Amino acid sequence: MARLTTLNAISAQEHLRDRVANALRAALIAGDLRPGMIYSAPTLAAQFGVSATPVREAMLDLAREGLVEAVRNKGFRITELTEQDLDDFTELRAMIEVPTVGRITRMGRTEELKALRPLAEAIVAAAAEHDILGYLEADRRFHLELLALAGNRRLVEEVGNLRKRSRLFGLNRLSESGQLTASAEEHVQLLDLMIAGDVRGAEQRMLTHMSHVRSLWAEEDGDAEGEGERGAAAMPLTAAEC
Asked: What angle do CA 133, 78, 144 make, to 5 degrees?
């Protein structure tokens, strides 16, 4: 029984570590943790309401993904993405996702595609309601579940990793300006084209969507210059499991 209790404790700790890591990723993507800034594990732990240990472990996970880097005796610095980084991520994703969308469309998996409509609509609803965490979760699930229809688990994992390494800053400002809603609606349009069996149209819509997102990256990256540090307190740990 003692051993079982220990294993349960380890499992709970690992789960908390994953939750913290997901919350930090969400804060990075939403722009609540700024590139170039250094954050200490104890400070973030206080904001999340947890001990410093799972935060430190989660930060090490993010360091392996290239999202942060350890700074001796200070904490972790949020890595900065260059324009070349953004171009590289976009190109890699386009090389994978555009032809995969075309292949799935040719497969004629109409029922499976129709089953994704609630997710596509959830992305639009979250954008309209300025629900950033809801938007991020629905967007992640839609893209990865769509690609999963191709039947290649490794492909889905790779795209998931690329999505983690690239991030869109200032989603709150995009949401308020209406640009996020316009981008969200492209998911429904893509799904409609795929269900209709329009291979070329679906591939073009996917490419346009990714180009659109890349242009938003560029705009928000430029707008973010000169801003001061913002905390992660606005990212509740319980809600940021995306």
From this structure: 40
